[in-house]
Amino acid sequence: MKLIACHDCGNPVSLSARQCPTCGSKDLAGPYRSGRKHRVEYRNDRNLAATSLSLGLLGACYGFATSASTIGAILATLGYALAGLTLGVPIGFMINVLRN
């Protein structure tokens, strides 16, 4: 049976173990790497983009629905979309930071 050192605590662990018996780590050989980013970083990027785009789209819909004229609709749509994007980035960042 081949043993490796746990990435988190350094204690020897069987390569076929599901988690480290000492510290409970599930990434025995270290975090999964795909290219240069971890899986968590890809999920963080997706959350940030989804939050920003959702709030930008919501702002654009609100701007279009509340305007009376054609030019006002265009300006309000762009303005509220920009406001939604401006709010979406910090909110998406906070979701990524506070997520377990």
Structure, explained:
The model has no long low-confidence stretch (mean pLDDT 80). It is built from two helices and four strands; from the N terminus they run ββββαα. It has helices at 39-66, 70-98; strands at residues 3-5, 12-14, 33-34, 37-38. The relative contact order is 0.12. The chain starts with a strand and ends with a helix. A hairpin with a 2-residue loop joins strand 3 and strand 4. By secondary structure, it is mainly alpha-helical. The longest helix is centred in the C-terminal third of the chain and has 29 residues, at 70-98. It folds into two domains: 1-30; 32-100, no CATH class. Helix 1 runs antiparallel to helix 2. The protein has a two-stranded antiparallel sheet. Strands 3-4 form a two-stranded antiparallel ribbon.
Labels describing this entry:
100 residues, mainly alpha, 2 domains, two-stranded antiparallel sheet, 4 strands, 57% helix
